[in-house]
Amino acid sequence: MSIFLIRHGETLGNASRTVQLPDNPLSPRGIAQAERLARRLEPAGIASILSSDFSLAVTTAERLHPATGAPIRHDPLLQERNFGDLRGTPYAELGVDMFAPDYAPPNGETWEVFHARVDRAWALVREAAAGAGGHLAVVTHGNMIRPAVETRQD
């Protein structure tokens, strides 16, 4: 059994260098990326898809479903870090390093709170993988994947 960690396709926010909004749609390029990924994963034996419930991840997961035939389950634990009031702001206008370890975005998640959620999400992924009956595809966000990969050895 393998776990495929998948970052959603490019969004309009990625393309415009803007802090993501939860309902940010995939760009045409992002849709093409998701469709290309679906073709690559078609023969991989994906038995189940676990996805963030943000629309950009949902759309990516929905492109995988017809190619794999795998059922999709959405879970909010897999959401991107909540950057609160920074959401929708162009990076050029931030005036702060929103990725600094000690930065707490107004009305958003601190790194400590976010990393605690990453830990819970990774436990969910392991549980889903154990019950998948084959390979598991996890469609989520870069900031969710990075700490999971950097801190896990299991």
Largest sheet: 4 strands, parallel
Give the topology string: H per helix, E per strand.
EHHEHEHEH
Numbering strands along the chain, what is their spatial order in the largest sheet?
1-4-2-3
Q: Class by helix and strand content?
A: alpha/beta
Gyration radius (Cα, Å) is: 16 Å
Helix run count: 5
Give the number of DSSP strands.
Answer: 4
What is the rounded distance between the termini?
Answer: 13 Å
Mean of residue pLDDT values: 92
Q: Rough shape? A: globular
Low-pLDDT windows of residues: none
Q: Percentage of helical residues?
A: 40-55%
Written overview of the protein:
With 154 residues, this protein is of the alpha/beta class. It has five helices and four strands. A four-stranded parallel beta sheet has the order 1-4-2-3, sandwiched between helices. Helix 3 links the parallel strand 2 (46-51) and strand 3. Helix 2 packs parallel to helix 3. The relative contact order is 0.23. The model has no long low-confidence stretch (mean pLDDT 92).
